[in-house]
What does this fold into?
Amino acid sequence: MTKKWFPTVVSVIAVEEGARLDCCDEDTAHVWVSVPGWSPRRAFLTGAAPFVAVSGKAPADLVGVRFVAELDLDNPPGNDDTNGERLERPELGIAPPIPAEWLRGLGGEG
It folds into this structure.
């Protein structure tokens, strides 16, 4: 079966530094991300390196940055991985800013 990859927003909500996800992990900085297309309430832990490379920011400065990634929205990571998920991020990029008129009445600018 062919995977269905859809562009979706991935928001960095927290950063953890100094720990590895597993023995093969070389990245010691990780980000917790929100992927509303998978779950509006669940966060996913993954390596920070791709997010750093795309944004040019240090891991500590990634909180609040939104990215766009093509993800298989029909197959979110399972709930049984307590060490965090490694997200596949084909074509990860910075998300464009949200227009101010969209934020009116939502507690945003305007």
User: Anything to note?
Assistant: The helical segments are 49-55, 100-103. The longest strand covers residues 5-17. The longest helix spans residues 49-55. Residues 5-76+85-96 form a domain with the OB fold (Dihydrolipoamide Acetyltransferase, E2P) fold (CATH 2.40.50).
